[in-house]
Amino acid sequence: MSTRNRTPVTVRRDLEYATKTYGHHPAFHRMHRKNGIGDALPVIYIYDSYHNKAFDWRQLLGETGTRPGKTVRGGDPSLSIRGSPADCFVLFLMVEQSHSEYARNGFDGFYTYFAADGFTYGSSSRNWPALRRLASATGTVFVPSVGPGYVDTSVRPWNGATTRDRRGTQYYDTMWKKALAPVSDKKDVGIEVVSITSFNEWHEGTQIEPAVPERRRNQGKQYRNYGGDGPLAFLKRTKDWSKRLAEVNSERASRDSPRVITKEGYIK
């Protein structure tokens, strides 16, 4: 969710519309909060969340906002979605390390979005153990984002430094491995959800949909096919890694008796 001139008021209206119109659709992924109390809530990813101050988000996502006579440090108590029909499981975008303050201001978790490992602090897999510890310290959920590769020079010729070659499916497999890698730390909460940054983004080279070699030029752009791995290569790898994610969660559940999580979204 990303809009220009966004405020807590406009976001609340957006969430009210989204939950009322689509909230009960089976394709809408849902999650429980850490305490496992109440129904699983629709999951909302907020893009460019750092364009609004942490205080603005606390007004919208603070637990005390909906209680009569209560305010959030001067904020409008009517703005909070908590406990209302518009309540959601809300994730912010972790780009810079300084954005960790948002994890302490009402969000349920955070994601990293960018498919190029090393492009930002959040999308650098070397920082993911630290982000897992942040999630543990703040009672939130860390959602690392993985991708099959990245190349957007057909639309941004100056951005070659961000290119990440697929190397078949090796880049994709490596990102998944880093996302699920165990961390020897009592403060590590593990990984419950992994997001895949791919939605028909052929001009950015993040597509995982079935692909075959193109039969004609498309305005001079040369899109990547999957070579000898076959047109379904990335869907097959996604199925395998999703299964492994479910296994990791099951193994952790048997060890740690963790929070309640839903099974929706896993590819069986």
Could you give the topology of this structure?
Layout: H1 8-22, E1 30-31, E2 41-46, H2 54-61, E3 89-93, E4 109-111, H3 128-138, E5 141-143, E6 145-146, H4 170-180, E7 195-196, H5 233-256
Parallel strand pairs: 2-3, 3-4, 4-5, 6-7
Antiparallel strand pairs: 1-2
Helix pairs in contact: 1-2, 4-5
Structural class: alpha/beta
> What is the C-alpha radius of gyration, as a whole number of Å?
20 Å
Determine the oligomeric state from the structure: single chain
CATH topology, anyone? TIM Barrel
CATH homologous superfamily - what is it? Glycosidases
Largest sheet: 5 strands, mixed
Fraction in beta strands: 5-15%
Structure characterization notes:
By secondary structure, this protein is α/β, with parallel strands linked by helices. The chain has a single domain (8-256), classed as Glycosidases (TIM Barrel, Alpha-Beta Barrel), CATH 3.20.20. The chain has 5 helices and 7 strands. The strands form 2 sheets. It has a 5-stranded mixed beta sheet, with helices on one face. Strands 6-7 form a two-stranded parallel sheet. The protein is globular, with a radius of gyration of 20 Å.
